[in-house]
Design brief:
alpha/beta; three-stranded mixed β-sheet; 6 helices; three-stranded parallel β-sheet; about 20% strand; elongated; Rossmann fold; about 160 residues
Length: about 160
């Protein structure tokens, strides 16, 4: 639910446009605010992207000068976050591949490094995560604007998963 204070152009958005962040009262005080916003989008909002798109369309004709979410910084420059949310809600992606892997003896990791190298040669931005150490929120953030996802696991794990299905 949003609340709009028409006199001041302030849009109070509760969870929408939020970030898990406790620094900088305003967006222009946080150097990497969009990274925090993208992670929040991916972790909290992405499953509801069709509803998010409808909400964005509903507020598109408002004179929004400030966005004040319940989590994270207040946006004095709302166009920056509005444009990103439109991209994310529409599913617009970059020439980017996220690779998630786990490796028992290092062989799967070698294959992943080969794939990563080939993608980079083709000019494709690549992000690689080893599931043994990765932060799930970081993976979600990168999935929000990736054109493709590659999952690489050792054969024995794939075989075990297949047997359980």
């Amino acid at each position: 639910m949003f609340t709009y204070l028409e006199e001041d152009g302030i849009l109070f958005t509760c969870d929408f446009f939020g970030a898990h962040l406790a620094e900088g009262m305003f967006d222009d005080e946080v150097e990497d605010i969009l990274i925090h916003a993208q992670r929040y989008w991916a972790e909290i909002m992405m499953p509801f992207r069709f509803s998010a798109l409808k909400a964005l369309e509903k507020i598109s004709n408002l004179d929004v000068r400030i966005i004040a979410p319940s989590h994270g910084s207040i946006y004095r420059n709302p166009k920056k976050i509005l444009s990103k949310y439109f991209e994310w809600a529409q599913g617009i992606t970059k020439e980017k591949v996220t690779i998630i892997y786990t490796s028992m003896w290092g062989y799967t990791e070698k294959v992943v490094k080969l794939i990563e190298s080939e993608l980079i040669k083709q000019g494709i931005y690549t992000v690689v995560y080893n599931l043994a150490y990765a932060d799930i929120g970081d993976i979600a953030k990168d999935l929000a604007d990736s054109k493709a996802l590659i999952i690489a696991i050792p054969t024995v794990i794939g075989f075990t998963i297949h047997q359980q299905c």
